[in-house]
Specification:
The chain has 15 helices and 27 strands. It is an alpha+beta fold. One of its GO terms (biological process) is protein deubiquitination.
Length: 558
């Protein structure tokens, strides 16, 4: 009996030891019940008590075991950046490592938001690390910082400066740091609209009927679409080009809705769309826009052919920009785009090559059978006829008088626009030297919806650039082309639109190679004219438009 009781006691003791071992083994993985852990670690909580040191050390050990790297030499932890990006891509209820992200409507720091310092026109780069990954804007001081994790620059800035409200520049979500919760408050919608302006199709259709002024935060009034552009450094040639293109209604309407060009991956296309939406946005915090991001995209796409700090020709920039946008917007190699729908016309070109030029071509083996192009040969003259598309027409000015008497000293030569348009009547001959001496005749066979005219004022020789000061007399309204140049006969049930109205006129002031550019543009809602030079926007009379030295003009077909 005693031995049986001893055996039963030993068995019970062994069972008890096993149970205790199981309980001890479960303790690290299943601690005592505690409040649910939120999706953020509040860095301010340990400051309230000095009895949490052991818990902090345990958290640090757990963090190091999870593979969280230390912040070496001020460099941002890559894992925390990627995790922040994953958190922002998830919905509002999911967060880091699958835990819940708290969303609050009442944040005690919303009154610290300072809209006066917010400027979203510049590139989205962290002010510390100069990275464009996962960048947040501090809504208190306006600076950009990377990430929102505990080792990020935004988190550090929130502790050092006491600035707690941040917006993700890509997802437009607003967070409170260092607490880490998301803020869902409708009072922040105006900031989101300034960061990424939005237009509905109905708003776009009624844009030209709007006569209402908008008010900036500083109390100044501005007209949407008539805002000044900041001249960063000798970038007035870009500003006048952009302001002119903003008057082309189909082009503007196309770029106001990002869905129209979402198929394009080109940065320049999207930067141009952003700039268009900012210029026409009626809820801006300030009455001007800085095209900084667009200029950076232009510098990169053009290989620094057009860059900040170097004056360039707006005609060259317009040609390059329209060609680049067309190539990036078309869906196939021979496809059309909104650029060609607006600006492309067609010319018939007759090229006559005479005696010596023909001999040179035969010596070089350049003579080919031009029967397909309508080429004819006779009397030692080769005539080639071809058709080519155009986006811009160049007009040649008559040379200014070389000698002036005392009475004509202050008289500026003038020429009517119709005289220099005769270049395209199909009969006037234009002598060209390059690539070989030839006589050219041009005739317009198809008119575009928007006609761009370029007056060639500058001539370059081996020594310097000369500017022709001749004034061109042109009508502001009702330019009737069919009275001066022969136009193709329209097809059946088709109306030939040959009447044009001026909508933009770019002017050059000053000496060649120096000087500056300004532009006269029309506001359609009231048919008023405005003079724009960088940040300066002022109303002017239509008569003043015609008195300027026109360099490039855009006409709209009636």
């Amino acid at each position: 009996m005693k031995t049986k009781r001893l055996e039963e006691g030993e068995a019970e003791a062994e069972d008890g030891n096993l149970k205790r071992q199981k309980v001890v083994g479960r303790q690290p993985s299943s601690p005592s019940p505690s409040p649910p852990q939120l999706a953020f670690d509040n860095a301010l909580l340990p400051l309230a008590s000095y009895a949490d040191d052991d818990e902090e050390e345990e958290d640090e050990r757990r963090g190091s075991s999870n593979g969280v790297a230390e912040n070496n030499g001020g460099r941002l932890d890559r894992d925390s950046i990627e995790q922040d990006e994953e958190d922002d891509e998830k919905g509002p209820s999911q967060g880091r490592r699958g835990r819940m992200v708290e969303v609050r409507k009442d944040c005690p720091y919303l009154d610290t938001v300072n809209r006066q310092v917010l400027d979203f026109d510049f590139e989205k780069f962290c002010s510390v690390s100069l990275s464009n990954l996962n960048v947040y804007a501090c809504l208190v001081c306006g600076k950009y910082f990377q990430g929102r994790g505990q080792k990020s620059h935004a988190y550090t800035h929130s502790l050092e400066a006491g600035h707690h409200v941040y917006i993700n520049l890509q997802t437009e979500k607003v967070y409170c740091l260092p607490d880490g919760y998301e803020i869902n408050d409708p009072s922040l919608d105006d900031i989101r609209h300034v960061l990424n302006p939005r237009f509905s199709r109905e708003q776009v259709e009624h844009l030209d009927r709007n006569r209402q002024w908008s008010r900036a935060l500083d109390g100044s009034d501005y007209l949407p679409g008539m805002v000044g552009l900041n001249n960063i450094q000798e970038t007035d040639f870009v500003n006048v080009t952009i302001q002119s293109l903003m008057r082309v209604t189909p082009l503007r309407n196309f770029f106001l809705i990002p869905e129209n060009y979402k198929h394009s991956t080109d940065v320049l296309v999207h930067r141009f769309g952003e700039l268009t939406r900012k210029i026409w946005h009626a809820r801006n915090f300030k009455g001007q826009v800085s095209p900084h991001e667009f200029l950076q995209a232009v510098m990169k796409a053009s290989g620094k052919r057009f860059r900040i700090g170097a004056q360039s020709d707006p005609v060259e920039f317009m040609s390059w920009l329209l060609d680049k946008l067309h190539k990036e917007l078309r869906t196939s190699k021979k496809g059309s785009s909104i650029i060609h729908q607006c600006f492309q016309g067609e010319l018939e070109v007759v090229k006559e090559i005479h005696g010596r030029a023909i001999a040179e071509r035969k010596d070089n083996g350049d003579v080919q059978n031009n029967g397909g192009n309508g080429g004819t040969e006779g009397n030692n003259v080769v005539s080639e006829t071809s058709r080519m598309p155009f986006v811009m027409l160049g007009l040649d000015l008559p040379p200014p008088p070389l000698f002036k008497d005392v009475m004509e000293k202050n008289i500026i030569p003038q020429v009517p626009l119709f005289n220099i348009l005769k270049k395209f009547d199909g009969e006037s001959v234009t002598e060209v030297v390059r690539p070989r001496i030839a006589r050219m005749r041009y005739r317009v066979t198809r008119l575009p919806q928007y006609l761009i005219l370029h007056v060639r004022r500058f001539t370059k020789n081996n020594f310097f650039v000369e500017k022709n000061p001749t004034l061109v007399n042109f009508p502001v309204k009702n330019l009737e082309l069919k009275d001066y140049i022969p136009l193709p006969t329209p097809k059946e049930n088709e109306k030939l639109g040959s009447k044009y109205d001026l909508i933009a006129n770019i002017v050059h002031d000053g000496k060649p190679g120096e000087g500056c550019y300004r532009v006269f543009v029309q506001r359609k809602s009231e048919e008023l004219w405005y003079e724009m030079q960088d940040l300066h926007v002022s109303e002017t009379l239509p008569q003043m438009v015609a008195l300027s030295e026109a360099y490039m003009q855009i006409y709209e077909q009636q």
